[in-house]
From TrEMBL:
Entry keyword set: Guanine-nucleotide releasing factor
PROSITE patterns: FBOX, SEC7
Protein name, UniProt field: F-box only protein 8
Domain annotation F-box: ranges: 68-111
Domain (SEC7): residue spans on this chain: 133-314
Domain of life: Eukaryota
Purpose: May promote guanine-nucleotide exchange on an ARF. Promotes the activation of ARF through replacement of GDP with GTP.
Annotated signal peptide: none
Annotated SUPFAM superfamilies: F-box domain, Sec7 domain
GO biological process: regulation of ARF protein signal transduction
GO molecular function list: guanyl-nucleotide exchange factor activity
């Protein structure tokens, strides 16, 4: 009885002081909310040295646009960075909403140079009324024309002042462009050997292993599907260019352009042998070394063995 009365009196005392379980939790919760509000307020004030990003992210035009940020309310640098990730089609669509931002010349200049790395017009004073958006449309139209008819495509670029009538300028354009159809490009280069010569000299094979250099060469200038005079011309030009880029290595290994020519043909034949599913009995490393050294006697056995290992591990040189 005495203990029960003591507990009742004790509970009444705690309630009067505001330290009951529920009151304590309520006070603690209120204290935490107050602390968090003060912290958030101070954090926002610190961020307001330049622009209140928190306020920008929370701003909405209407409930229908909830979760959608208006780029015009962001700093220009941030808006341009976001738009720079768009391709040409999406950027045109974005210009319907943010006309001033999406029509910015720097954005379209970046799209032009990322797709067509070299054009003669880049190094000239722009004509009256020039815009990179218009240039992009012309480059795209010219590329489509080239992929249908290479000669007409090149003439289109020249008529628009995009390319100069020079083999070196055409070669630079081809070297820095990835939108051209490789089959049409092969036909064009077979007819324009002057452009092919300048295109070969644009490659730098310094300190590259021979099979890797040959792969890079055939990535820009695709090999024909059949043997013939054009393939011989390509390998001959590659051999001379490879030797010109690595004179010290050629002296050390005792190689000449003719020896490199033989090695290139051996690598192509080995690539076909090892990768073709129709060849059942694959050439062994010992057979490749013996056959290659029979054709080029001054080449060391270790060097030829490394050539075989490269093809075996990495694959075809002209894939």
């Amino acid at each position: 009885m005495g203990q029960g009365l003591w507990r009742v009196a004790r509970n009444q005392q705690l309630q009067q002081q505001g330290y009951s379980g529920q009151g304590y939790l309520t006070r603690e919760h209120g204290r935490r909310i107050t602390t968090n509000n003060v912290s958030n307020t101070s954090h926002r004030k610190q961020a307001q040295g330049g622009i209140d990003i928190y306020h920008l992210l929370k701003t909405r035009k209407s409930k229908e646009q909830e979760g959608f940020i208006n780029l015009e309310m962001l700093p220009p640098e941030l808006s341009f960075t976001i738009l720079s990730y768009l391709n040409a089609t999406d950027l045109c669509l974005a210009s319907c909403v943010w006309q001033d931002l999406a029509n910015d010349e720097l954005l379209w200049q970046g799209l032009c140079k990322s797709t067509w790395g070299h054009c003669s017009i880049y190094n000239k004073n722009p004509p009256l009324g020039f815009s990179f958006r218009k240039l992009y449309m012309q480059l795209d139209e010219g590329s489509l024309t080239f992929n249908a008819n290479p000669d007409e495509g090149v003439n289109y670029f020249m008529s628009k002042g995009i390319l100069d009538d020079s083999p070196k300028e055409i070669a630079k354009f081809i070297f820095c462009t990835r939108t051209l159809n490789w089959k049409k490009l092969r036909i064009y280069l077979d007819e324009r050997r002057d452009v092919l010569d300048d295109l070969v000299t644009l490659h730098n094979f310094r300190n590259q292993f021979l099979p890797n250099a040959l792969r890079e060469f055939f990535r820009h200038i695709h090999a024909p599907e059949e043997r013939g005079e054009y393939l011989e011309t390509l390998i001959t030009k590659f051999s001379h260019r490879f030797c010109a880029c690595n004179p010290d290595l050629m002296r050390e290994l005792g190689l000449s352009p003719d020896a490199v020519y033989v090695l290139c043909y051996s690598l192509i034949l080995l690539s076909i042998d090892l990768t073709s599913p129709h060849v059942k009995n694959k050439m062994s490393k010992r057979e490749f070394i013996r056959n290659t050294r029979r054709a080029a006697q001054n080449i060391s056995e270790d060097f030829v063995g490394h050539l075989y290992d490269n093809i075996y591990l990495i694959g075809h040189v002209a894939a």
